[in-house]
Backbone:
């Protein structure tokens, strides 16, 4: 009797597995790999899950349900590569979303290119990623090649050319500071009055700031991750660097923690990003309200870029005639995304892609916006200092 | 069967040749996608590190928490040799082993005077110092990492995909295990155990404690160097300082502890299980670290000798019962 029970339950289990496989064979599969460690990281994951749940409740895409697979890469390249390999070959997804960190996205590119899976980047800004020439990569955020120009031009022409740089050993922070230094040298022939790379996870920047102060700069560039940016801003006042010295930060400053935790020290900080929460357009106001009520935070540009990505992915997937041939379907998804022109969402400018696997075609948003904090603390406020739309070839 | 076991006991190398052919056949029989090959290569790399860690920690009893730094040295030696000289794995691998062996000397020196938590702190500092040095050094690609490290070629075949690279990482892992077994079953291995149990008694028995501590660190470092080089060339060939943090070190330690400290198969069993469990819990990313931490705590509480301890107990019990049966007859 026991044996019959075991055989019967095994048969039921196998049959149910088979049924679920058949049921899922028709579904559209989306894979996600990004940093889901911090509180905000989890919330980005929740935003994707909620959006896909909503699509499915509305009938899916052309009647097909969407299967979502979310993996955390912890901002580590080893895990990002493993996730990309798993999503491409084992989970057999049609499209990959990820990653948050440039150092993770960069090694994912050869993996997804070999596997022939289209990948859309929600956050990584390093210009190196699209320069790989992969036909399968698409970037929603503004590339660092545009950020360096807009930031450099704005700083040199509106704030001053005597610039001190303090940056931390994180890829995005270093790229921002170094590319800006190079731009200032190439365009205006000026060297930094002071530059230093702080140590990893350093908490006391006062010695660097004192040295920067001694160089008597017009502008001080503070390029770090969230905690470091907050500390550098607060400590810059502690060491007596006057308000008249302009503070510039990288796009990390768009994250809500910076103005919230830096308080008054955030006032006057200028940074370039792809979205400002102070945006007065109805679509932006609605989005800010939704994120505040649903996730309890004021959205920075990481949130808006994720939302834009999802909003442009849905119509792209709707245009694909899924045949069941994975390779053909993936190429069709790639071509459909490449066909996106002038998508107007939350971003500072329209997002367009084209067929070639070049940075000109795959750096979708070419319009960074210069933002200034006008109030710090919990009820922080921003003002748009200006926007520039670049030509696809600029900064190459 | 008994005769076969006897032959294997006499010629252990034969066992590795059989294992080689079995592992050669596994992908074509069982693997259904490339990810399984990628995961297998990661398992093989972890096995090499864990086998080395087992020498210094499990056999010689030296507490090291900086092994991940040595793994980084291996990776970056290979990465830099590729970046500046265009060297392939066949050149970078032996040089990475040698260079990491030299770093092993530096790690061994504190062990002459320090023990337990003090030695752990010293090696932890060493490991972190290496990572920070790499991260801040432009020569090493700093936080950009080193990308597009080439994959090896042999007989006109480029091992540039996970399924092909399996056939590179697997034999290297087998050679490493064979080497580890040879060392641990020799007089050196017994001397390591003597140092672990009681350094004063070992010295009184004529064992040069300093020399053997040094040797354990060097051998162990060479394993880490080999693993690091194999990892650097693993497709897509990208290394970054973020992959050599204390978290990775704890993972390596967990492999050795879970498998069974001082058990000859300990690191290997631990590396296989931990890597697979880590992969299976990937979709449960919110709870992954919790599950992982809980596993380590429960292992230490209820299975202090790890899985290796269970295996040992099983064989000892079986042998005992067999002998009891013979005696009763």
Residues:
């Amino acid at each position: 009797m026991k044996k019959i029970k075991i055989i019967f339950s095994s048969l039921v289990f196998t049959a149910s597995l088979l049924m679920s496989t058949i049921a899922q064979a028709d579904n559209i599969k989306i894979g996600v790999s990004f940093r889901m460690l911090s509180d905000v990281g989890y919330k980005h994951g929740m935003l994707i899950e909620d959006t896909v749940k909503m699509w499915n409740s509305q009938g899916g895409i052309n009647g097909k349900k969407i299967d979502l697979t979310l993996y955390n890469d912890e901002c580590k390249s080893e895990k990002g590569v493993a996730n990309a390999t798993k999503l491409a070959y084992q989970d057999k997804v049609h499209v990959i979303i990820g990653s948050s960190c440039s150092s993770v996205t960069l090694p994912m590119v050869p993996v997804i290119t070999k596997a022939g899976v289209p990948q859309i980047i929600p956050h990584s800004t390093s210009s190196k990623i699209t320069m790989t020439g992969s036909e399968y990569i698409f970037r929603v955020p503004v590339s660092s090649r545009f950020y360096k120009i807009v930031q450099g031009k704005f700083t040199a022409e509106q704030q001053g050319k005597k610039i001190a740089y303090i940056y931390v050993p994180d890829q995005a922070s270093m790229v921002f500071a170094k590319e800006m230094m190079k731009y200032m040298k190439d365009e205006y022939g000026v060297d930094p009055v002071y530059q230093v790379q702080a140590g990893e996870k350093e908490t006391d920047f006062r010695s660097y700031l004192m040295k920067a102060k001694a160089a008597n700069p017009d502008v001080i560039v503070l390029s770090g991750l969230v905690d470091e940016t907050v500390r550098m801003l607060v400590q810059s006042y502690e060491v007596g660097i006057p308000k008249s010295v302009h503070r510039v930060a990288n796009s990390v400053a768009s994250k809500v923690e910076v103005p919230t935790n830096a308080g008054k020290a955030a006032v006057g900080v200028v940074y370039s990003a792809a979205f400002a929460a102070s945006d007065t357009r109805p679509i932006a106001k609605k989005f800010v309200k939704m994120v505040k009520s649903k996730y309890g935070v004021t959205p920075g540009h990481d949130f808006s870029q994720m939302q834009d990505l999802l909003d442009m992915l849905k119509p792209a997937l709707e245009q694909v005639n899924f045949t069941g041939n994975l390779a053909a379907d993936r190429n069709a998804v790639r071509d459909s995304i490449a066909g996106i022109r002038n998508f107007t969402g939350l971003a500072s400018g329209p997002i367009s892609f084209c067929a070639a696997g070049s940075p000109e075609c795959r750096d979708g948003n070419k319009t960074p916006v210069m933002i200034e904090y006008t109030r710090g603390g919990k009820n922080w406020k921003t003002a748009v200092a200006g926007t520039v739309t670049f030509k696809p070839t600029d900064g190459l | 069967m008994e005769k076969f076991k006897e032959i294997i006991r006499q010629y252990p190398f034969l066992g590795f040749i059989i294992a080689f052919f079995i592992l050669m056949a596994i992908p074509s029989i069982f693997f259904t996608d490339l990810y399984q090959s990628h995961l297998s290569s990661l398992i093989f790399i972890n096995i090499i590190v864990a086998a080395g860690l087992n020498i210094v920690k499990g056999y010689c009893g030296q507490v090291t928490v900086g092994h991940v730094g040595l793994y980084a040295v291996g990776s970056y030696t290979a990465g830099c040799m590729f970046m500046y000289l265009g060297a392939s794995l066949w050149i970078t691998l032996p040089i990475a082993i040698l260079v990491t062996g030299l770093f092993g000397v530096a790690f061994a020196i504190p062990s002459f005077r320090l023990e337990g938590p003090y030695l752990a702190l010293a090696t932890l500092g060493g490991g972190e110092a290496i990572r920070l040095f790499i991260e801040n050094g432009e020569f090493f690609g700093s936080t950009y990492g080193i990308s597009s490290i080439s994959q090896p070629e042999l007989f006109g075949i480029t091992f540039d995909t996970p399924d092909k690279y399996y056939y590179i990482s697997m034999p290297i892992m087998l050679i490493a295990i064979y080497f580890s077994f040879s060392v641990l079953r020799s007089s050196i291995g017994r001397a390591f155990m003597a140092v672990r149990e009681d350094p004063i008694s070992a010295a009184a028995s004529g064992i040069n404690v300093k020399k053997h501590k040094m040797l354990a660190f060097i051998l162990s470092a060479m394993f880490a160097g080999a693993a690091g080089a194999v990892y650097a060339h693993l497709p897509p060939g990208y290394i970054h300082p973020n992959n050599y943090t204390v978290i990775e070190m704890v993972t390596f330690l967990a492999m050795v502890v879970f498998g069974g400290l001082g058990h000859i198969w300990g690191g290997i069993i631990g590396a296989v299980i931990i890597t697979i469990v880590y992969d299976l819990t990937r979709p449960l990313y919110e709870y992954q670290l919790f599950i992982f931490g809980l596993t380590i705590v429960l292992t230490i509480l209820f299975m202090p000798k790890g899985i290796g301890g269970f295996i040992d107990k099983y064989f000892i019990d079986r042998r005992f019962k067999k002998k009891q049966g013979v005696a009763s007859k």
